[in-house]
Amino acid sequence: MNAVLLSLVTVLSTSAGGLCALRFGARRHLLLGFTAGALLGVVAFDLLPEIFALSQRAGSDGIAAMVALAGGFLLFHALATFVLVHHAHEAGYARHRHPDVGLLSAAAMVGHSFVDGVGMGLAFQVSPAVGLSVAIAVIAHDFCDGLNTVSLMLMHGNARASARRMLALNAIAPALGALSTLAFSVPPERLAFYLGFFAGCLLYIGAADILPQAHARAGPTTAMSSIGFMLLGASCIFAVLRAAA
C-alpha cells in the first residue's frame, strides 16, 4: 500500500462529505456550525502539532511557520475584503453573500487538500507506518473537507452545479498531491512554512467567515444548536486524529 493508492480513498471520503452538504442544506446553521468546528479542529489538532513537530525535527523554533500562519490569515482577509468591497461598490451586493468569496474560500480548501496529499506522500517517504497513520487521518477529515467546500460555496450564493465542480476539484486534489511527491521531496522546515500558511487561511475561513454565518439571524435555540455542532465538529477531528496516532 502506498500514498497514491490510499489517496484515491480520499476521493470517496471528500465526495461523501460534499453530498451530505448538498442533501441536508435545509439545516444550514447546523452544517455551518459543524464545518467551522471541523476547520478549527483541523488547525488546532492536526496542522499546528504537525508544524511544530516538523520544525523541531528541523532544529527550528517554528517562528517562521507562525509568521506564515499570520500571513495566510491576513492575506486571505485582505483578498476577501477586496472582493466584498469591490462588488459592494460596483453593484451593492450583500456583504456576506457573494459567489466570488465562496470561490476564493473553496479554492483555499482545494489548496489545503492538495497539501494533505503532499503530506501523505512525504509521510510515506519517512516510513510506511508513519504514512499509514497520516493517510488514515487525511481520509477521515477529508469528509469534512468535502462538507466544508460545498457549504462555503452555497453559503455565498454559488449555484449547486458550481459547488459540485469545486467538490470534484477538492476530491481529486489529495491524489494529485500524493502523486506529485513521487517527483520531489521537501525539507521539513519548508513544509512547516507551507502548512503554516494554509493553517492561517483555514483559521480565517472557520473563525471569521463561517462562524458569523452560522449564527446570523439565529434565535437562541438555533444559535445554541449551531454551537453544539461546532463543538461536535472539533471533537470529531480530535477523536479521528487521536485514533490514527
Short description:
This protein is an all-alpha fold and about 240 residues long. It has helices at about 5-25, 30-55, 65-90, 100-125, 130-155, 160-180, 190-215, 220-245.
Report on the architecture of this protein.
This protein is mainly α and 245 residues long. It has one domain (3-244). It contains eight helices and no strands. Helix 1 packs parallel to helix 5 (128-155), helix 4 runs parallel beside helix 6 (160-180) and helix 5 (128-155) runs antiparallel to helix 8. It is globular, with a radius of gyration of 17 Å. It starts with a helix and ends with a helix.
What topology emerges from the helices and strands here?
Layout: H1 3-23, H2 28-57, H3 63-91, H4 99-126, H5 128-155, H6 160-180, H7 188-215, H8 220-244
Q: How is the biggest beta sheet arranged?
A: none
SSE string, helix = H, strand = E? Answer: HHHHHHHH
Per the principal axes of the C-alpha atoms, what is the gross shape?
Answer: globular
Portion in helices: over 70%
Q: Report the mean per-residue pLDDT as an integer.
A: 80
Report the total helices. 8
Radius of gyration: 17 Å
Distance between the termini: 18 Å
SS elements, strand count: 0
Tally of domains: 1
The low-pLDDT segments are: 90-95
Strand residue percentage: under 5%
What structural class results from the helix and strand content? mainly alpha
